Amino acid sequence: MMENENGSGAITRREMLAGTAIAVTALAMTKVTGLEAVPSAPTVTPVESEGVSFSVNGKAVKLEMDTRTTLLDALREHLHLTGTKKGCDHGQCGACTVLVNGRRINSCLSLALQHQDDSITTIEGIGTPENLHPMQSAFIKHDGFQCGYCTPGQICSAVAVLEEIKAGMPSHVSAELKAPVAFSNAEFRERMSGNICRCGAYSNIAEAAAEVAGVQG
Amino acid sequence: MKFEKPAGINPIDQLKVIGKPTDRIEGPLKTTGTAKYAYEYNDQVVSPAYGYILGSAIAKGTISRIDQSAAKRSAGVLAIVTAENAGPLQPGKFYVSRFLAGPQIDHYHQAVAVVVAETFEQARAAASLLKVDYKKSKGSYDLESARDSAQQPAPAEFGPPPQTLTGDFEGAFKTAQVKLDETYTTPDQAHAMMEPHATIAKWDGDRLTCWCSVQQLNWGVRDLAIILGIPKENIRLIASYIGGGFGGKGTVLADLVAASLAARAAGRPVKLALQRPLMFNNTIHRPKTIQRIRIGADQDGRITAIGHESWSGNLQGGRTEPATASTRILYAGANRLTRLKLAVLDLAEGNAMRAPGEAPGMMALEIAMDEMAEKLGMDPVEFRIKNDTQEDPEKPGRKFSTRKLIECLQTGAEKFGWQNRRAKPGSIKEGQWLIGMGVASAVRGAPVTKSAARVRLNSSGIITVETDMTDLGTGTYTIIAQTAAEMMGVGLDKVMVKLGDSSFPESAGSGGQWGAASSTSGVYAACEKLREAVANVLGFEPTKTQFSDGKVIFGDQSVDLAGAAKSAELVAQDEMTYGGLSKEYAQTTFGAHFVEVAVNAYTFEIRVRRMVAVCHAGRILNPKAARSQVIGAMTMGVGAALMEEMVVDKNIGFFVNHDLAGYEVPVHADIPYQEVILLEDIDPTMSPMKAKGIGELGLCGVASAVANAVYNATGIRVRDYPITLDKLLKNNV
Amino acid sequence: MKSFTYERAETPAQAAAAASKPGAKFLAGGTNLLDLMKLQIETPTHLIDIGRIGLDKIESMSNGGLRIGALVRNTDLAADPHVRADYGILSRALLAGASGQLRNKATTAGNLLQRTRCPYFYDTNQPCNKRSPGSGCSAIAGFSRQLAVIGGSDACIATHPSDMAVAMMALDAVIETVKPDGKTRLIPISEFYLLPGKTPHLETNLEKNELITFVVLPAPVGGTHVYHKVRDRASYAFALVSVGAILFKDGSGKIALGGVAPKPWRKPSAEKFIQSGAKGFTAKLLEGARPTNENAFKLTLVQRTIEGILTENRS
Ligand SMILES: Cc1cc2nc3c(=O)[nH]c(=O)nc-3n(C[C@H](O)[C@H](O)[C@H](O)COP(=O)(O)OP(=O)(O)OC[C@H]3O[C@@H](n4cnc5c(N)ncnc54)[C@H](O)[C@@H]3O)c2cc1C
Ligand code: SF4
Ligand code: FES
Ligand code: FES
User: pTM for the complete prediction?
Assistant: First the structure.
């Protein structure tokens, strides 16, 4: 039996999904508290803010925020969808992988503002503890994770990879560029290489995906 | 409960729940993104501010001035913490690092200031507006040049003695019929766990709560109290989930200190994560070693002399990388020497990383064994088997509690198809690929240490376990649940496990491969107490009461377990402590690694094609989780063998490749299907659980098995890790 | 990251016009620009998001060539049936680069314009002539294993990290642009990249804020297309060296290199030596190389990689 400490991750999500649209404002406040705090001073660096709307896991979202906010930070810090992880913030690990209009991207190297009208799916939209996606179940069955930090990214990526293979997209290891591609261990491993797992669950992840793809790993 | 005599039959031996390949109980949370890591407690802290660390731009020197004017005026800035206004800070007990520089700078990217602002974007921008004037001084960054200045270190906790001498090593080596004397190097390595060090710090008056990513919460509380100069009792650390550690989050590092100071300064809770490019030079790492190995044997391949010396460097007062540890115990030989030397370097602190000492030590020793086998014209598996020992080679008469190294090697050889290996390097070619096979032994100590837990039984029959133990992916939640379920005679669905809160009873924590064996033993002890309490409530004789299928059975009476807590929740707490069995017996885990590589005949690109590991590591509490620990370690071993190195710029004094694009760790494409065989082993000298750790064993020897396979493929011997194609090209004559 | 204003352009013309604003920069996929902005290596004060200006199609031209929109994503370019059929080297090069996620975002123009991965360029505490002209080069006396063996200067030995551009070089691609005033021009890729000389911060022939609109590929040339990228790990890593080759039945060919120079390296005058074998050809191709101790291995590695390609594709 397992319960998240005070189960609030789920509550936040449900709250978010319940509203048709929520607006989060993260403009600078100048209120200063605390002994060592900086005395109020005129602001020299302006904060530029902009609005953006997109949908997350099927629900419309409208945000007004600092232009510098990445999609990753918009999800984690503004929408409190912390399932998407920040491992490096520089496109070097894949922990932040989400699906945008069905395609996987690194949400850390994307401004939230670049996603006007986009449809975004995060791990919370893939499945829930009560209603797991087959890929999530397969990860559990094959122990395709350890610490769990890379896992949401791995799962989003794996779901997309199976679609990419189905759509006939070639990869670096496809023997033929012109022939159709099929799921294989080598194809899967190459395509998943943008998702680093330092715990080293790779071998198990490949087996999980093979099961979902309906092939013998 | 004190464990003093080898364990007899106990409830764990029923193996109704223990020993089963149970799925991780936290799986549904981790796979759906609902498990919460340090930076994610948005519900616990309302409107936190964001902290951002500015790291030192120089490696050694002093700060002459920090001009904060522009940063202070920057939008959203709430506070700036530097050594000037932080108040006195002491070093903690385990790391020597100072977490805030000033006026001295001890190493590159040491924190110089923490900027707190309303948003992450504002804090990051403001940090770049700080103008720091430095005065550089000369530092020492190169182990090779500092080698001659290295000293014999003082004996340290967790590590072999700095020097051990058995018999007459020098004499025996001189007269040995076959000899090897080679030097190997292992580079500085990064833990590179996927979750960066992160903390949310919140003060309520003088009480501090931190959601953090720390493996040893007891050390964390101890060290944070010392560092900040506040009472231990005022600190609570919470780490329900940790996104990987590998020793790199042992106790307090800069994020915890910075967030705590920043939250105090801003009068607000503060969230702070180390930015990835800062982690490599700011935190700790596995330090570089230079290792000289000498082995002497008779013509028949019996080792007569074995010597292992290792040099490493660290900040003043830092620890020595104990690379000689395994050589003391792995092979027979009457004449032995091990020696550690430590130089002072002005790089970030070297400290524990997964299997400290043993991992880098085995990287060298097991190449040396391969070279020696070749000199002797022996099969490397045979050579190892020939030099097995059933007693501690330094203390003849002291037995191993259990030791099946030979069986590991033989089982692995058979599974792997070792008989297909050709002794002559470069003999097998498939297309443009040269194929090679390599083997290495594995060995890692099996420490077990004091650990406490509390267990509760409520009126619904739910058992709740509370301990400050952490789960970094090690499967702790699950094996603790299995332990409690076995002890209380219930199914896993009736057990709830709460970990990672320093307000819970103090556990062993996660480190040194002691976590699983120790923490489950603590839970065992607490469950013994709870069984007693249940029996007492029901008026049963405790020693004759059985717990099975949710029932409490005494004689012909059988009562629902829940019934015992009908009127009041039952709570029991205990700890497991240990007597002298670890002195009496050498308690160790063993294994063998077999690897096949393909090396491109033109470019010398190296790809691992097959891996088999055999482990002998006490009772396996959960084969699924244990296997995962091993495949993860094998993966890390491939990284160590082929790509991982923090490169030191010896002019500037820093690790140059300080991000995850520059510091390469294995990706999916590098790792083939991995086979793991867990040999049956029950070690009653360890604890009532009869278990040992396995997570570090899996790493020891992997890199050298890869190295030996590369040699077997190409005939080119590389003794400096990582084995990259440029080194093969250079030595290709 | 410095604060900036943001606008979403809707047409190429609008984007080009907006580019005259001070401190403006185009944001395509953002996978390189945002990375560098986070570290304040790039500090634009105005971003023009060109992600939705169109230019995301691949058109066939009457001469049999292809006209690739600047915003075509790397994934789509690699998977395009024409590219797979006739420009295999380009598919192969793209698929060898970055990761699936990054290729879904990265664009054709952004890929051409990505900046070096020299580790000192990436650390703003260190002197770097490319990042801050005149400050010095930390890499030449430092960690230079990844860096250039040819085409560099005493001021900079950075490499251009793109795989795609290597294929484009072998394919004689032409880059089509529009300037803020609406004028367009065509730049052959062989003239597109600049060598560092004394001004390593200047990397291409583009004028400030000139917008790349298309990359044009000449009609297919046939031949066997190969792209061999050599790296320490099997994927998701930049090249130590890479060789893009188009080989013809008669033994002739076109060969470009990645990972060895500040630009994709090709020397058509050397290509007549391909028939005489890897050794002679490499000697000509890398004539005048000035490697460091740490990267001298690249000279041998290039030769051996080419030897492998020639041997394996001729038998
Ligand atoms: C971890 C990692 C690994 C990578 N590995 C590889 C690899 O192995 N091989 C490889 O080739 N690449 C690799 N890349 C780089 C990746 O390919 C580039 O980041 C990507 O191609 C850039 O495209 P973009 O559209 O995102 O560019 P952006 O980041 O949007 O732009 C890059 C530059 O081009 C300018 N620009 C963009 N479009 C235009 C236009 N139409 N006209 C004028 N200027 C324009 C921008 O102003 C900016 O200066 C890697 C990147 C990362 C983060
Ligand atoms: S090689 Fe070029 S990019 Fe690298 S430090 Fe030198 S000047 Fe900068
Ligand atoms: S956090 Fe985005 S790739 Fe690492
Ligand atoms: S499960 Fe820990 S990094 Fe993948």
Answer: 0.96
